[in-house]
Amino acid sequence: MKTLILGGAGYVGSTLTRRLWEAGHDVTVYDRLLFGSASLEPLQGRERFRLIEGDIRDAAALQAVTAGQDAVALLAAIVGEPACNRDPQLAVETNLLGARNALAAARRAGVDRFVFGSTCSNYGVSRPDALVDETAPLQPLSTYSETKVQAEKEILAAASELFHPTVLRFSTAFGISARMRFDLLVSDFTRAAVREGKVVVYGEQFWRPFVHIEDIAKAVELVLGASSETVGGEVFNIGANSANTQKIELARRVQHRVEGSQLEFVKRDVDPRSYRVDFTKVRQRLGFVSDWSVDDGIREVHEALLAGVWADPYSSRYQN
Questions:
Q1: Strands 71-74 and 2-6: what pairing?
Q2: What is the pLDDT of residues 288-309, one digit of tens each?
Q3: Which strands form 207-212's sheet, in the order they lie side by side?
Q4: pTM score, two decimals?
Q5: Is residue 41 within 8 Å of residue 110, measured between CB atoms?
Q6: Cβ neighbours of residue 135 under 8 Å, at least 6 residues apart?
Q7: Pairing state of beta strands 207-212 and 244-246?
Q8: Which domains are present in the chain?
Q9: Rg value, the chain, Cα
Q10: Could you tell me which residues come within 8 angstroms of residue 185 by beta carbon, excluding any fewer than 6 positions away?
Q11: Cβ neighbours of residue 197 under 8 Å, at least 6 residues apart?
Q12: I want to staple 84 with a disulfide (CB 3.0 to 4.6 A). Which of 68, 144, 181, 270 is the partner?
């Protein structure tokens, strides 16, 4: 399969790129390379791999690179609320207008499969005693989730007998990537415990679902390998019910792993992102089961920090 990964040099994208290439896909990565191309260095010069620097806001360039592809995975985005808040116009141009460009290019090129990387933060706030599934109302509470929700609607509306888009709502990601991020909770808490001896937790009662980047890549691979009848026009939450975790529990797991670390709690009565998510559909439809637990992710980052994998884990290159 010839697969185009838009945003394939990023935190999730570089892992997906490697995984699909190892599975035998002919992979083309189209990426703005805002954080450089080092994440893809092991694949440079290899057969079945091509890297093209470009911006999804450039409709003509995007159309050219999409021609001849069998599948498109759209991961390119300004990711996360803080990054979007720094430049809301860029966020809208990239996350929504760029998604429209990718959608139009894929349809004109006759691409069959289109996978859109979205987010469980689209659910906003849910009842702490209930799990939200793919049919739950969406409550976008930031520029980031607003652009994702609108892009979802337009992509799903384009489904037809010849075009089979799939929306994947990812949980909060964790795990070590060739393009590492330390601005996500699991890595952030673990780094603080190791380097500062203390984890500061804001709003310890609020919930997040978590998923390892290897499991995200696995889910995309399953979608691309499934029948069009199974995934065309569908939405899947990506994660595991067992990985729905309160911030206080996550902090305690980190403390248990990092001996001698302390916890400090800062009371927050309102958090615009507190949700517990149901992942039954992806398990039943695609047989998806997470291979990595939250504890696995804490251990992975902890061991890498002790080994000195990153000279300065506080460097700006490791956050969006």
A1: parallel
A2: 999 999 999 999 999 999 999 9
A3: 172-174, 207-212, 244-246
A4: 0.96
A5: no
A6: none
A7: antiparallel
A8: 2-173+210-238 (3.40.50.720), 180-208+242-275+292-318 (3.90.25.10)
A9: 19
A10: 172, 174, 208, 210, 247, 250
A11: 260, 261, 262
A12: 144
Copy the structure tokens of residue 211.
Answer: 């998923």
Token representation of residue 282: 């992806």
Task: For residues 292 and 174, give the distance between their C-alpha atoms in angstroms, rounded to a whole number.
Answer: 10
Cα gap 313→319, rounded to integer Å = 10
Is residue 298 a contact partner of residue 190, using CB atoms and an 8 Å limit? yes
- HEC sequence for 98-141: HHHHHHHHHHHCCCCEEEEEEEHHHHCECCCCCCECCCCCCCCC
Two tokens, residue 147: 């652009």
Q: How many residues does the chain have?
A: 320
What pLDDT digit, counting tens, does each position of 130-145 carry? 899 999 999 988 999 9
